[in-house]
């Protein structure tokens, strides 16, 4: 079981590569956009909750 895991980990490390600048920036933009969307959704839920008299 441990030997199988080590073999799979070795295969992943052989295939893995460092992302280039363009790929890194694309991932950073998508991640940032996702964080903003989640924050806006949380803010809207908080506003709705405060208007309905709930305590958050």
TrEMBL record:
Coarse class of the primary localization is membrane
Identify its membrane topology class: Single-pass membrane protein
InterPro entries for this protein: Prot_translocase_SecE_dom_sf, Translocase_Sec61-g, Translocase_SecE/Sec61-g
Q: Which GO biological process annotations does it have? A: intracellular protein transmembrane transport; protein secretion; protein targeting
TM ranges are 27-52
- PROSITE patterns given in the database record: SECE_SEC61G
Q: What keyword terms does UniProt attach to this protein?
A: Cell membrane, Membrane, Protein transport, Translocation, Transmembrane, Transmembrane helix, Transport
- GO function terms (MF aspect): protein transmembrane transporter activity
Superkingdom of origin organism: Archaea
Function noted in UniProt: Essential subunit of the Sec protein translocation channel SecYEG. Clamps together the 2 halves of SecY. May contact the channel plug during translocation.
Belongs to which family?
Belongs to the SecE/SEC61-gamma family.
| Name listed for the protein in its UniProt record | Protein translocase subunit SecE
- Output the lineage of the source organism: Archaea, Methanobacteriati, Methanobacteriota, candidate division MSBL1
């Amino acid at each position: 079981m441990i030997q199988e895991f080590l073999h799979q980990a070795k295969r992943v490390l052989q295939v893995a590569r460092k992302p280039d600048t363009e790929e890194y920036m694309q991932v950073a933009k998508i991640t940032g956009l996702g964080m903003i969307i989640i924050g806006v959704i949380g803010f809207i839920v908080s506003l709705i909750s405060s208007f309905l008299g709930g305590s958050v």
